[in-house]
Amino acid sequence: MSYLKRGQISGSNRSWIALLCALGTGGLGCGAGSPGADTDTGSSSATKADDPRTTSAEASTATTAGEGSTGGSSTGAGSSSGEPTGSSSGGFTGSESSGSTTGESGCTKTVVLMGYWPPTNEMLRPFSTDAEQNPDGWVGENWRGLGFDVYAFFPEFPPDGDPTNDPIGSPGSVGADGSDLQVDYQDTSADFWSIIDTHQPHILITHSRGGGIGWELEAIEGGHGNGGPDPAFDWISDGYGADTRPTEATVDPRSWAAMNTYRDVNASSLLPLETIEGVASGLGLTTVEIDTTGTSGNYLSGFLGLHGVVYAETTPHAVAGGHIHVGTAVSVEDARALTDASLEAVLQMYPADSLTCPKSR
């Protein structure tokens, strides 16, 4: 339901207005008190491979059906293609180009890539500007001459880089102190918005470790409302620190607004999913699928994935955003090839000189 991208804000969608106000993109209604959360109607939680309820052995052999995906809410997610498509709700599903042939030249067009558990952190390493994380040097400046600077952010997992042999909630599973995007709700919320505010990306792709499908393109996020009064309990405990769920007091207000807005409805990916599926499948490296019925789950993958979609949906200059699950059996070399092919396909759909610059904050 692309209310903002379509220039529509439903008067009855009170939590959507709250989200726009929290993000700083709202207008009418933002002066009033924060609207309440929508009424809980059920849950669409899904268990993915990075869910603490799934063991490392299960993760290595999981399939979409075997990972406990229960589908989205009854409102539906619309098209699985990620291309601009009309929906029965009157909104737009999938990514949507600005339609202009010339854009603004007064800013650098940027892409942000985010990762979690291996292989996603390792596959994104060449795009990090951190010399400690990427001693070989940043490759993202005007990547492939396409006019975009590409940045990547991800955690490290001491002491051996393998989080699967550490208990959930331990530093080896959560990520090193000081790492970007620790697998922790509070740290992910704080780091996500800090990165976004700094780089204001036109395109945002989040990644996390999946299961048996090598390159799983998530078509929908959110919809994990469990009928309870507190949205924090829609999400599985991360087992880390004093606050193990994303509570209103411990996450960025924009995270809280997104969690409330998408408790009982789904947010559709704004990536060109069919285009990515085509180029990734063409490499012949692994299985590639679009997941049209499940989500990234109600653990940290889904939390990060929802953030990415909501950012792209509510940010005027952003044109694409969504989540990709990367299979446990995919090598770092293959994952990097899939990343490069997928990213290039997206960037070619949105020429840098056709995009507008971020508004001044």
Q: What topology does this entry show?
A:
Blueprint: H1 14-23, H2 56-61, E1 85-86, E2 92-93, E3 109-114, H3 120-124, E4 148-153, H4 171-174, H5 185-199, E5 203-209, E6 215-218, E7 220-222, H6 253-261, E8 266-268, H7 273-282, E9 288-291, H8 300-314, E10 320-326, H9 332-349
Parallel strand pairs: 3-4, 3-5, 5-10, 6-9
Antiparallel strand pairs: 1-2, 6-10, 7-8
Helix pairs in contact: 1-6, 5-8, 7-9
Structure description:
The chain is an alpha/beta fold. The chain has a single domain, classed as Peptidase C15, pyroglutamyl peptidase I-like (Aminopeptidase), CATH 3.40.630. The chain has nine helices and ten strands. The chain has helices spanning 14-23, 56-61, 120-124, 171-174, 185-199, 253-261, 273-282, 300-314, 332-349; strands at residues 85-86, 92-93, 109-114, 148-153, 203-209, 215-218, 220-222, 266-268, 288-291, 320-326. The strands form three sheets. The chain has a six-stranded mixed beta sheet with strand order 4-3-5-10-6-9, with helices on both faces. A two-stranded antiparallel ribbon has the order 1-2. Helix 1 (14-23) runs antiparallel to helix 6 (253-261), helix 5 (185-199) packs parallel to helix 8 (300-314) and helix 7 crosses helix 9 (332-349).
Tell me the β content: 5-15%
User: Any low-confidence stretches, pLDDT <50, length ≥5?
Assistant: 1-18, 26-47, 52-102
Overall shape? globular
Strand order in the largest sheet: 4-3-5-10-6-9
**Count of DSSP-assigned helices:** 9
What count of domains describes the coordinates?
Answer: 1
CATH homologous superfamily label: Peptidase C15, pyroglutamyl peptidase I-like
Which structural class is indicated by helix and strand composition?
Answer: alpha/beta
The CATH class name reads Alpha Beta
